[in-house]
């Protein structure tokens, strides 16, 4: 039983630390303060809720390929797409 309590405590500490260090704009479903209160006041349930419903999801577009050449290509494509998005595709009107 001691091991279960220790495991629950470790999970709680890790989830609370994760919630504290997550950027404010990446939270799902609640604000940062709301998640901190839930994880702090409901240790086991709050930790599980944080993992399931609050923790930011990593999307495949956040990951770069392992090959350095492919990673560079993807990075340049993202930069070009962002530049085009900022310009609003006004360059197409001039063609």
From TrEMBL:
Stretches assigned to the Cardiolipin synthase N-terminal domain: 10-55
GO cellular component: plasma membrane
Keywords of this entry: Cell membrane, Membrane, Transmembrane, Transmembrane helix
Mode of membrane association: Multi-pass membrane protein
KW Transmembrane helix (keyword) present: yes
Pfam families linked to this entry: PLDc_N
Origin organism lineage: Bacteria, Bacillati, Actinomycetota, Actinomycetes, Mycobacteriales
Compartment(s) where it occurs, according to its Swiss-Prot or TrEMBL record: Cell membrane
Residue ranges of the TM segments: 35-53
Predominant cellular place of this UniProt entry's protein: membrane
Name used for this protein in its record: Cardiolipin synthase N-terminal domain-containing protein
Organism of provenance: Rhodococcus wratislaviensis
InterPro entries in UniProt: CLS_N
